[in-house]
Amino acid sequence: MAVPVWLPPSRPSIRGVAHQRCWVHKMRNILEKVRKRDYDAVKAGAQAIYLAQGRRQAEAAARLFCRRWRREYASMARKLERDLPELLAFFRFPKPLWRKLRTTNIIERCFVDVRRTTRPMVCFVNAQSVDRIIYSIFQRFNLEWKNRALRVFTQAA
How many other CB atoms are there within 10 angstroms of residue 101's CB atom? Predict the structure, then answer.
């Protein structure tokens, strides 16, 4: 007997590029609406989704999570189901990259550097001076990252 398979709704990507939602932000959104007594169980259930060994296991964990919490937190379950394709996009890449790809930490780190550099300056002469500073910060990142090889994507991997 064939069992119906639940497939998350899909959203089209821009020019074939997968869109990855940040799990850190999703966890914050999930947990801010949860009662104290359910907090640990909801957290463990949500973590089981992104810590799964593969996409199929993650989808199964998501089904289980939504089934378990739909009655108490219907809105949370609906939003998780809606966002699931973009939350699981990292599974398309090699396993060593999963941890880095499932969050926006690398992007946020760049903006921390921008704030760290610009805050002591207090005021700027004009908008162009701000643009030059921010451009130079990102140009430095580009130069640093340009020569950094990702072992997972090289032939030696």
Answer: 18
